[in-house]
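Usage

Read records sequentially. Each one opens with the input sequence:
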Amino acid sequence: MKRFFATMIAGISCVAMLAGCGNSASTETAAEKTENAATETAETTEASGSTEAVETPAENVKIDKLTIGFVPSRDPDEIVTATEPLKELLSSELAGLGYEVGEVDITVGTSYEAVGEGLSAGTIDVGLIPGGTYVLYEDGCDVILTATRDGLSIESPDAKTWNDNKPTEPTPDNQVTFYRGLIIAGPSEAGQAIAAKVNGGEQITWEDLDGLNWSVMNSSSSAGYIYPSLWLQENYEKHITDLTHAVQADSYGNAFARLASGQIDVLCCYADARRDNEEKWTTEFGRTDSIWDETNVIGVTDGIYNDTISVSKTSQVMDDAFKAALTQAFINIGNTDAGKEVISIYNHNGYVEAKAEDYESERAAQELIKSMQ
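and closes with the structure output:
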C-alpha cells in the first residue's frame, strides 16, 4: 500500500508542475526545473514588456468599486495596514490603462474558503489566494497571475538540512514560482524530543507523530494542510484526519503563538513562516530565545506552486478586457519598489502571467486528498 501511494504521489507531482516530485532526488530535479522556468519566464516577460499589449478602451471605463479579497495567512489587521497603499497604486495603474476606479475596497476573509466563496458569488472581484483555494473554487474564478518570490538559502527535502543550516535567509537574486511546506516542532518538551530524534538521524515513527499536539490550517491551505497530508500519506500511509490531536488555526500568526506557549508541539506552515514571525517570537509571543534556537523542522513537503491572483467569473465589473488590464496593472505594481513593499506581506516579489494548466498537479493533489478522506 505504501508503495502504491508513493507511486501515485510521484506521478501526480510531476504532472505539469514545476516543483517537487515524490522522492528526494526527483524533488530536487523538479525544483531546479522550476527555478529555471521562473528565470526563463522573467526573461521572456522583461523582453516582451511583461504581457501582450493591453488595448486601452477608446473612452475611459468607470468602475464604481473594485473589491479585493486576501486570505488570512497573516494577522488580518496586519494585512489591511500593509496593503493600504495598494488602493492608490492599483487605481493609478488602471487609470493609465483606461479604467477609472472610484473605490478599491480591501477585505480579509475570515477563512480561505470565505474568499473563494466570495469570488464565486461575485461579491469579491479579485482574490489573492493560494493554488489550493483557486483549484477548489475555479468554477467561480479564473487565475490570471502567479506570484514570484525570493528563493531561500535552504532548498532541500531533508529536515535535518534545514536545522543544520538555519536561520533561513532569502536569496533575492533567485526568483522562484514554488515554495515548500514545513512541519516545525516548537519549544515544548514533546516538540524538543521529536526534534532531537530528527537531528540525531533517527527515524521518527507514526506513534511519535500521533503523540504530538498539532496545529494545521483549513483544508484548502496548501502548506498548512494539503501537502502535509501528502507527506504523511507518502511516509506513513496516514492523513491529517488520522492524527489524534490536531486543531485548526485561523492564521499562521495564531499557530506560532500557540507553538511558543507550548499549547501545541508542531505546526504546518510555509517555508519562510519563521522569518515572518521572528520578531514576534520574542515580543508578542513572550519567548526569551530566538525562534531559530527554539524551533526545528521535522518534515518537508514537496514543492508547492505559488499563490495566485484570481478574478471572479460572476463579478459584474469583470470582462476579458478588464482582466487584461488587471493583469498588466499587477505586473507593473510588482516591478516597482513601492509595489514590492506592499505585496511583501505575502512574500510576493512580483507576478508572471498564469494559466489554469499551471495548477494541474494541485488538482491532482486535491483529488488524492478527497480519496483519502
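Summary fields computed downstream for this record:
- The first helix runs from residue 2 to 14.
- The longest strand covers residues 141-152.
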